[in-house]
Fold this protein.
Amino acid sequence: MSKIAVVIVNFNTGTLLRECLGPLFESSEGLGLEVEVVDNGSEDGSADGASRKFPEMRLSRTGRNLGFAAAANIALRRIRDEGRADYVLLLNPDVAVEGTSIARLAEYLDSHPDVGAVGPALVLPDGRFQAGAGGFLPTARTGFAYFFFPFKVFPGLRSIFLDQAAFARRGITARVEWLSGACLMFRRAVLERAGLLDETFFLYGEDIAWGKAMGEAGIEIRFHPKARVVHHHGASANKAFPGANTIWLDMVYRFVRKESGAWAYALFRLFSVGGFFLRWAGYSLAGLRPGGLAARRSARDNARFLSFSIFGSRLAGIGKRPDATQGQDEDSSGPGHSKTAGT
């Protein structure tokens, strides 16, 4: 099996980091795995505790929170320059690998030399599929497909977020334009062809931007639902961002405006307003039923997304970029990969 370099960015994740590393090392036999943890200025001792328990890991320290992209690039640049791995795995510390999941991803790259990057299904601890495991670049068209649900009727439709469950039922891989950085395996050559992560994205959006760079470099990206990992989505988010985190939405808006122009941005934002309104209304009605606590929480989250979509961060009071000393993570109510240390 090819040698795999695993890169984990850590920021005040407590026991999550150790819970991530345990199954990773247990399932690494025969994989030639090496693990590098980049600590992004943690103050909770999580990196030191993990280093004591797993002395085989390599620990780097940034000294302060640089954001995910900048921290990850420290390790990625070293891996690229030293040429010491065939494959690289970006992994969040709140992700627990399941059995042979890592081996499945490596085997897929081994048997598909035309594919440059592959990602697994992201499953929540309760067994539900997480939103935002991957999809297509944000545009007015892919936004409409997601916000108004056509992607649920036609799973093959190009949507910002793909329907994981649909592909899992069919047991087939899907060609996508971006994958979540929560768990993403790619060939080391991708770093040379597509470059490193875009550090202008302090948190969120860097995986979408990197997917675009891969596409421009002719690199094929695949979602592999037969490989699964458990994502404790938002497990550390509530420490930094109580309630629904809208920063992911702000970054998507920024990406659309930059890449597609003002008219596409206006349409995308209009579609998001309509989509979040429909979700808020639906969850609000469901929350009236006995035992509808989860639906009421989802209604509140979507109300916050709706408010941000209409007013932006200034009036909604949310979605602002934190300074470099803050932690960041994606709340469980928002799509995308969880941000621990800006990941």
Summary: Residues 245 and 331 are 5 Å apart (CA to CA). The radius of gyration is 19 Å.
